[in-house]
Amino acid sequence: MRALLIVDVQNDFCPGGALEVPNGDKVVPVINNLTERFDNIIQTQDWHPRGHWSFASSYPSKEAFESTELQYGEQVLWPDHCVQGEKGSEFHPDLNTVPTQMVIRKGFRKSIDSYSAFYENDFQTTTGLTGYLSERNLDPIYIAGLATDFCVKWSVLDGLKEGFQVYVVEDAIRGININGSVDKALEEMASEGARFVKSYEVE
Ligand code: VGL
Ligand code: ZN
User: Fold this and answer.
1) pLDDT of residue 100
2) Would you say 78 and 140 are in contact if contact means Cβ atoms under 8 Å apart?
3) By CB count within 10 A, which of 1, 127, 149, 192 is most buried?
4) Out of 3.20.20.70, 3.40.50.850, 3.90.180.10, 3.40.50.300, which CATH number does the structure's domain 3-48+90-201 have?
5) What residues act catalytically?
6) From the CB of residue 101, how many other CB atoms can be counted at a distance below 10 Å?
7) Where are the domains of the chain?
């Protein structure tokens, strides 16, 4: 049985938000339309404590969009975003979350960021999503949401690594785009075996 995975469609990733994705809100009507065609829907929610180590504000000498080294490797530093319990971490108000069966919160450990819906950025700490999908017999996974070059990309790559068939709904994603990172992400997902579909091609 197929599933729809909606990644991080939250206020802070939409225009006016703390880490806005250009036209991020444009995915909302496309996703609302898609949800009508899926019986199994999962959402992710970026969910950081204050002082999270992925926030540039946690380092006196760093600016947002610079990088630093954490135990697990390079980490891009972000403006404070998706702080637990705050408005910015809420789902976009127009997103229809009623049919969603499972919400995976991620990035709640201060010292580890988490882009992927499956694993945190140390590539070891699991969110439990593989088990959930497997136990419910859900495969293939259709992925939509924000941002193409970070949380969507890593969710797609991990989904493939975990052995799922993954479809990227290409008109239901938008990216941040740092130095061509959107095009690179699309290439990487394709070369690892992701398939691309348009929302109207999904029956
Ligand atoms: C994301 C950067 C930081 C995303 C989350 O949802 O793509 N990007 N946290
Ligand atoms: Zn984040």
Assistant:
1) 98
2) no
3) 149
4) 3.40.50.850
5) 8, 106, 151
6) 12
7) 3-48+90-201
Q: Which residues of the chain have pLDDT under 70?
A: none
Structure pTM?
Answer: 0.98
**Token pair recorded at residue 28:** 């909302």
Q: Which of 8, 77, 113, 118 gets mutated to test ligand 1 (max ligand atoms within 8 A of its CB)?
A: 8
Neighbours of ion ligand 2 (CB under 5 A): 46, 107
What is the per-residue pLDDT for 58?
97
Q: What is the pLDDT of residue 163?
A: 98
Nearest alpha-carbon partner for 42 in 82, 5, 85: 5
Asked whether the beta carbons of 59 and 184 are under 8 A apart, the reply is no
* Helical spans, DSSP H, in 49-145: 129-135
